[in-house]
Amino acid sequence: MIPKIELKSSKEIKNYQDNKLNKLMAYLYKNSKYYKNLFIKNNINLNEINSINDLVKIPVTTKEQLHKYNEEFICVPKQKIIDYTTTSGTLGDPISIILTEKDLNMLAYNEAISFACAGINNNDIVQLSTTIDKQFMAGLAYFLGARKIGCGIIRTGAGSPELQWNSILKYSPTYLITVPSFLLKLIEYADKNNIDLNSCSIKNAICIGESIRNEKFSENELSKKIKSNWNIKLFSTYASTEMRAAFTECEYNKGGHHHPELLIIEVLDENDNPVKKGCPGELTITTIAVEGMPLLRFKTGDIIKTDSTKCKCGRNTFRLSPVIGRKNHMIKLKGTSIYPDMIYNVLNKFNEIHDYILELNSVVGSDQIIIKILSDSPSKMLSDKIILSLKANIKVSPIIKFIDKEKLNELQFPKLSRKKRKLIDNRNKEIILDCEHKE
């Protein structure tokens, strides 16, 4: 189930996207109050935007702008809106994203080809271990995509290892769609209840929300910990509510595949210029298949790299690396720049650590990292061991605090939250990317 455009040459894909961009520009000028004002204010002549190479002539769109002028991005009358979705609310109040009937069909198409990329077909049964309510787009997308493929679906929702295993043992699903760290809780439950992991029906997991790869696509510590206990194939997938599309790995696990019929992709430095090939930068997207609320040069805040070498699966589209980190979550410590994911990767090595959350604070001249840890064996010896490992691997020395499960749950699941959080960022600072741009 590989779309024909993804097998075309790079030149053919570019020509396809050039044509889609021209149509999008005209559509936005006619229907989007926000973008029409942007074009007029910046003297942008639509006739001069003929190629994706011309996108640099247009100002980027930020999350702050989407938040502040939310309704001005809507391009359809109210009666055409079918679904009201919201983001997780990283700026305070969640951002609303609306979808029309056409958008919902496109969402189903995106997830169907993404799942097919990971090998799902109509003979499979998928256990959906993520919420589909609370205006959460991801769960809805997974459900629609699985329906389009025609496979069976078990909607267990997030949490409750007992419910997950009851469903696995009763219905024999072949794929789990879940946050990868939750697989560790399933492994723990299976061990305590004499369930043989490797004789159960689950052979694959689509991993959402957390990275399971390092930058060069090797397994990170979380992935290694899962697979050392469970002989299961893991597939990484990356998406966001705003892009309404996904990047999912194929069987070769060399990055999430780009769907050029859905998104135009740029990777930008701190000056909004394209980075050199292979250089990390901020993923910036233009939606070319969205009707209700299209976005033009929208900066996601996620730092990634692209890989344009041809994949063995036959697709000619480029692939995304795992997310290196969020731009606003970069940590500066005594001249060293790191991302929280680098810390997570070290913490995941420790079997003594059952769960954790990071807290970032601003102190004079630097950032402060506090790691709050849940462990059955809290001790100064364990604390020193963790600090020593972090110093050796990423040259940081955080403050370690041990807390109980109840307190950790309060921090990870604040009021009205839809998903578990691993980071509390109390800072307020602008981060600059270390990245060169093309000449």
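(the above was protein one; protein two follows)
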Amino acid sequence: MTEFKEMGVVEVTTHIVDALKKDSSLSNVIVHGEVSNFKYSGPHAYFSLTEKDCLLNCVMFNALYKLNHRKIEDGTLIKVYGSIRVYTKRGTYQFYTESIKEGTDYGALYRKLEELKKRLKAEGIFDKPKKSIPRFPKRIAVVSSRTSAAFRDVINTVKKRYPLAEILLFHTGVQGKEAIEETVRALKLADMSDADVVLLVRGGGSMEDLWNFNEEAIVRKVYEMRKPVITGVGHETDTTLVDYVADLRAPTPTGAAERATPELAELSKIAKRNFGRLLGEISVALSGANNRIFNLHARLETFSPKRMLALKMQKTRTIMNDIYRLVAATIERRIHDVERASDALRYAKPVRMSDILPDRLESIWKMIKRSIVTKVDKKLSEVMRMESELKLHDPNEPLKRGYSMVFKGNTVVKTISQVEINDLLMVVFKDGSVLSEVKEVQSGRK
């Protein structure tokens, strides 16, 4: 039975450090490889060397001054001079670089990227028109790993900015050859979903970590997408081929979520501002409409048939009163004449007065009748004339003769120029009305 030696973490780490120190081949060694993810952090430089499927993390202290502020481009083939040591706080080994010597050619991975980029560009794939990003998405499709920090960043950002949106995850691996087919399938499903926009996201990493997003199959699938696509792959300085065919490129997964959603707080401010402006416009419009209605009502009161009829009736009553007063005055005058004649008879000779009195009375009565009839006929003629004028102004008279009135809204249609196709017209007859829609307009009379 094998016996196991029990050690603490410090003891194991110390043992590894001592083993590395004893191996002279790992001290003062030259390592060549392809640069990936080179960046400065303060005066120090951090990068990786790659060869085939292997990766070596490197650090170079005070690199800013040793390299004279020169930046080593990713993909460059270089030689580094230094030693392998253990970073005890993380339990990882890395190459502590003392100096760097650049090669004369780019690495194989970078050459492969440039060749594919050149070929796709020649096909015009990078020149496709960009689709617009919906301003208020109801559903956001996310193509990423369900366990990735990138997916968590998207969830947190959307919840903070625009919690009204629903997030649909289409899980896929984001690294390795087996993940290429998964990513293509996830993009296809996202494009078939009812999402309004698709986010293709992945956290930062080396050139090798992000290489899947340079794969031709994934690039072409993003190019074929019907829905708008936002990419957020790696960090701000990382650029992959999917960024060229996406409708919008974001520097990070969080940036992709920000570009896919509006700021709810800002929307609230805009809504309040627009609502206040709308209330002002409605108030002005209502005030103007109220003034127009008041003016139209005043005009209607002035020229309405009802008011005109009332004025004519008032004038008729005045005329009739004048007739009554005239007849009464005439009768009273004639009665006064009769009374004077009667007084005169009392002093006249009885025989003579008795002979002429009947004729005198008959003559007076005839005069009274003629005067009354003349006055009455004159006033009746005037009343009849006014009645005819009233009938001419009565809008119902033409309706009784078979005509009709056409209204567009509250306006009487007087000419064909007031009518357009699809207008709703109210046709008024003597016994009702019909609401009709205009299908054809013909100018001229037939």
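Reviewer note on protein two: The domain at 9-106 is CATH 2.40.50.140 (OB fold (Dihydrolipoamide Acetyltransferase, E2P)).
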